[in-house]
Specification:
47% of the residues lie in helices and 8% in strands. It has 141 residues and is mainly alpha-helical. The model has no long low-confidence stretch (mean pLDDT 86).
Length: 141
Amino acid sequence: MHNPIFLQTMLKAYKYRIYPSEEQKILINKSMGCVRYLYNKALDAKVKHYEKTGKSLSCFDLITGMLKEEKSKHEWLLEPYSQVLQMPFRNLDNAFNRFFHKQSKFPKFKSKHRTNSIQYPQHVKVDFKRSLIKLLKLEIL
């Protein structure tokens, strides 16, 4: 009888202090504002849709429907990297899953005055030799 082989994936996380230029700070703040706007808009849409139909909107529904619609309405949503704008829908979906599994409270609307963040799920390059982090549409020293 053969013993099963288990492959483990080691995930690494890095924490960096960055020193963005004024122009980069503006773009980062705009990106965080866009993410907050989309998260709040999606949370509102999910609650209203559930009250109306008794069914939930999926992450896919929100990304393909709402994100496309909002980008056509608001030109400022075209500035951040597109995958950054998909993350609030995924995060909201995870928040609802945690809520339904009784692991957390009902998702709350995001505030400008609390901790803000953005996520780059891929296409992040770190050049350790030059102390450079490259993110799409943004390059930080």
